[in-house]
Every structure is written in C-alpha cells, then in structure tokens.
Amino acid sequence: MKCSWWQVAKIKVNIAYLRWVQASLTRTLNDKQSMLEIQQLARTDDNYMVHLYFEVGIIKTRIKALSERLYEQRARLS
Asked: Origin, by domain of life (predicted)?
C-alpha cells in the first residue's frame, strides 16, 4: 500500500511539535527559577516531579515511534 506525501508531512509535523514540547520541558527542568517553582509545587504534591519526568519519557517514546513510522512511510513513497 502506497502512502501519500501528506501522510509523511503530517508525521513530520507531529514529530516537530513533540520535539518542541520536549525542548520546552527540558528547558523548564534546567531553569533554576522554574525548578524552584516546581519544588514548591512538589511540596504540595508528592508525585509532581514523577509526573513531570514521566511526561518527558512519554514524549521521547512518541518521537521515536513517529520517527520509525516516518521512515516506513518514506520507504513506501519510493
């Protein structure tokens, strides 16, 4: 089954968006002021940091899966 160029474009957009979200979360985790705010939130919610790092892991997994799918779609186009 052959795929269309728009399916490949849609996957590329999804990957770009997820990479942007991942970069944004990483910047937040690396920023001292943001980390102070996160620590304050973590004091009220014990699982806050766990959820934050879990979200980063989910995004990385989705990027990997979409990248593999993009590779497959490109192979079908050729």
From this structure: Bacteria
**pLDDT number for residue 65:** 86
d(CA 68, CA 7): 14
- Judge if pTM exceeds 0.70: no
Q: What are phi and psi of 37, to 5 degrees?
A: -65, -40
> Burial, 78: exposed, middle or buried (Cβ in 10 Å; 0-12, 13-18, 19+)?
exposed
d(CA 57, CA 50): 11
Ramachandran class of 36: left when φ > 0, alpha when ψ lies in -120 to 50, beta otherwise: alpha
Question: What integer is the mean pLDDT of 6-22?
Answer: 82
Q: Which two tokens stand for residue 2?
A: 């052959």
Q: For the beta carbon of residue 50, count every other beta carbon within 10 angstroms.
A: 11
